[in-house]
Amino acid sequence: MNVETLINFAYIVASILFIFGLKMLGRQSTARRGNLISSLGMLLAVVVTLFAQEVVSYQWILVGLGVGAVIGLACARLIKMTSMPEMVALLNGFGGLASLLVGWAEYAKTLAGGEASSTFTGTVIFLAVFIGGITFTGSLYAFGKLSGKLSGKPVLFGGQQIVNGGLVLGLVVAGGLYVINGGAPGMGTNAFYACLAIAFILGITMVMPIGGGDMPVVISMLNSLSGLAACAAGFVILNNVLIVAGCLVGTSGVILTIIMCKAMNRSLANVLFSGFGSDGAAAGGEGSTIEGELKPISAEDSFAVLEAARNVVIVPGYGMAVSQAQHVVRELAEMLENNGAEVRFAIHPVAGRMPGHMNVLLAEANVPYEQLVEMDSINPQMPMVDVAVVIGANDVVNPAAARDQSSPIYGMPIIKAHEAHTVICLKRGKGAGFSGIENQLFLLPNTRMLYGDAKASLQGVVSEFKAIAEA
Ligand code: NAP
Q: How many angstroms does the Cα of residue 356 sit away from the middle of ligand 1?
């Protein structure tokens, strides 16, 4: 068996590990192991690739490995869970850039060799460069929006879709010229750089009109694009495992994008082109006048309500992540159970700031998986729930999505916390949710507001339980 056959055999094993790893990521109880198995697959793929004859410089690979490992380790230790979406946006962007550079390097190689690229090679170089370019600048822009360095509001201007359409057309024409000319100096080279420039611009102009609230969908779409760019790069250098890994990232990104669009009851086209969250849209529709008053409740009174409850549903949201309240939430849940109540956690697919955000935090706090209930399963039971405790969630429990046809979020599925007999909402003040839309839940007659940082408020309630237990 020669080295190439051995390498390809190892690639098959690595691909199988990727697929098993991905499958295990689908369940909370197996997700950590899935991550480890996928990482092992990647390690195997990287190690056997180093045996390939085409490796040009082991020294530079070692330098890259060292620098990458230091940056990766620092990020893993320093980046807060709440900043993960920004981190993912950057990782997608650099993935796209890497594929672009692979395509560019292959083009430079053919140019230096003085030979024209075949139609196939020209096409895959074009794909790696244009998809990688869009992914790179689009992800950097998304990073800017998510991190607050750029405004989260959609940037809209007249004729925007015509401009974007023109850019796409320009890209197709330049790409066609590049492939037809085989990248030959002159027309081929000009077409190549035109593709590069248009892809960079298009990445920005595509993300510009999308509001901060829709960024999770954009991130997952860019994730998918980074996979497709990697797949194209795999075809450029004829590396089987890169093709497989790229396809897996590409398709899983598409699946996640579809799931998130469904969770918001919107089409991908609506997310990409509606300018959701712009001044006109985010304020709410004409019929969205919100009436009622906010009724505060103290930690002592919250305790009294919860102590009498037999059926409690906890709805966590972004505020739980901000205040890092997951451990004290678990403590409260245990106390409620010891008091004879049934406790469940209602998980909205886009609660927090990244897919699975709440699941990760609650798993970190050792909340049993069985207590986590998905939105569709918990909603029919909400009218039978004594108390819904909404911890730093806002958009995902906004009844306007179900009731107010003029609301920009009308139709988005929500956790129907308002149907519980009593709702206790924990938040610091009158801050709106990510989408900037007001929430009628807070003004309903059965809702009480427990103001303050979620962790501190919960500690107040927990200490009441402890005081009773010790008395
Ligand atoms: P949300 O609508 O953003 O609301 C969070 C609420 O938490 C705010 O109203 C805020 O009110 C409160 N809060 C913040 N810090 C707090 C603290 N320390 N203690 C107590 N409360 C605190 O959150 P959500 O209901 O989870 O909805 C998620 C939103 O983010 C959706 O619009 C979704 O589309 C979007 N999004 C989701 C993802 C994802 O993938 N999951 C990614 C990006 C964006 P106060 O300021 O008054 O405290």
A: 14
